UniProtKB/TrEMBL annotation:
PANTHER family: SUGAR-1-PHOSPHATE GUANYL TRANSFERASE (PTHR22572)
Molecular function GO labels: UTP:glucose-1-phosphate uridylyltransferase activity
Domain of life: Bacteria
Protein name, as recorded: UTP--glucose-1-phosphate uridylyltransferase
Keywords carried by this UniProt record: CBS domain, Nucleotidyltransferase, Transferase
Gene: cugP_1
Keyword Nucleotidyltransferase in record: yes
SUPFAM superfamilies given in the database record: CBS-domain pair, Nucleotide-diphospho-sugar transferases
């Protein structure tokens, strides 16, 4: 996604002359027409302008006369392969990124996709858990290797990260580790490197960080639980972390809980209000983190540690821990019902090519 897409914005009553200026100045061969709320109304390319001139439209005519009101779009959280396929099938060089309510949130271009740099940040995938709540499915298969849409869920996570340019991977293994290692091997099948961190005894949800070689973590580390399905935008996540440089960034998901009764508010024994089945809103951890190198280096090897305790240490010491709300698809596969839901969702949310 390009960073200066907001320089390409037009309103529908701007003139074709203004569109030409924006297209020329932006050097992306496109302008984006939005309304007052930032919703995408259409796109204008140099080809659209030329066709308008052939129809004898004057340069002071409104840009709405030449814009394409139904452009192909991407949704936030798209993968690189998905974007390349869309650009190829539509035979265009640019595609807007549109979020909830039709709001324009970015622009992807073929040029930027093809030159997307490899990201040097290491990635740590947590795949050592027992998957107890998913038994009997996990009796002879580690939870991250359970198939969703025909491939292990851990492979979907890996492929998403590869699509964003990450190539240095570490995978923590313990339960039925040989099945994980046999499938992924050294990562060359995906054009990346994979090294394995062996937990001889379970070390909790953060203890395996202490087994990483310190020299391998000189940039912020991406940590992803191996039992989630998501379309989170890892590029935006890393950009947010790099912009604010906290000790840690925690991806969060809104969780709503409705009390199934009328709730009584009171002052001692005097009822002051009755709220029928109120809904409470919480943010929960989405199992995706970005950790500063010094946070990782401080984790002692072979000492059990859970991620909430590691994060609370940072908060207690006065260091910033930020949240990054995930509005894209996200599912924690902790129970059999979640696994069945993932199977139903797979055709809609999995798109790696």
């Amino acid at each position: 996604m390009i960073s200066d897409w907001q320089d390409l914005l037009l309103r529908r009553d701007d003139t074709i002359r203004r569109a030409i200026e924006v297209i020329d100045r932006g050097a992306k061969r496109i302008a984006l027409v939005v309304d007052e709320a930032g919703r995408l109304l259409g796109t204008v390319t140099d080809g659209d302008v030329r066709r308008g001139i052939l129809r004898h439209l004057g340069l002071d005519a409104p840009v709405a006369e030449v814009m394409n009101p139904q452009p192909r779009v991407l949704r936030p959280g798209y993968g690189r392969e998905e974007a390349l396929r869309l650009l190829g099938s539509a035979q265009v060089l640019q595609v807007p990124i549109v979020g909830e309510g039709g709001v324009l949130v970015g622009l992807e271009t073929l040029t930027d996709l093809l030159k997307r740099p490899r990201l040097e940040n290491p990635v740590f995938l947590m795949a050592g858990g027992f998957g107890t709540r998913l038994r009997p499915l996990t009796d002879d298969c580690p939870k991250p290797m359970l198939p969703v849409g025909g491939r292990p869920m851990l492979e979907h996570i890996l492929q998403d990260l590869v699509d964003y340019g990450f190539y240095r991977f570490y995978i923590s293994v313990h339960y039925l580790r040989e099945k994980v290692i046999q499938h992924f091997q050294d990562g060359s099948r995906w054009g990346v490197t994979i090294q394995y961190v062996h937990e001889d005894t379970p070390l909790g949800t953060a203890g395996a960080l202490g087994l990483l070689p310190k020299e391998a973590v000189q940039r912020p580390l991406i940590v992803v639980n191996g039992d989630i399905m998501t379309r989170v935008n890892y590029e935006a996540l890393l950009q947010d972390h790099d912009r604010h440089t906290p000790a840690a960034t925690v991806c969060t998901r809104q969780y709503d809980f409705q009390v199934p009764y009328g709730v009584i508010e009171h002052d001692e024994q005097r009822i002051t209000d009755i709220i029928e089945k109120p809904v409470h809103h919480f943010f929960v951890s989405a199992g995706i983190y970005v950790l500063a190198p010094q946070v990782v280096h401080a984790v002692e090897p072979n000492v059990r540690l859970d991620m909430p305790d590691l994060l609370k240490r940072q908060i207690k010491s006065g260091r910033e821990v930020r949240m990054f709300p995930v509005h894209e698809y996200w599912l924690d596969i902790g129970r059999v019902g979640d696994f069945e839901l993932a199977q139903r969702d797979a055709p809609r949310v999995i798109d790696h090519g």
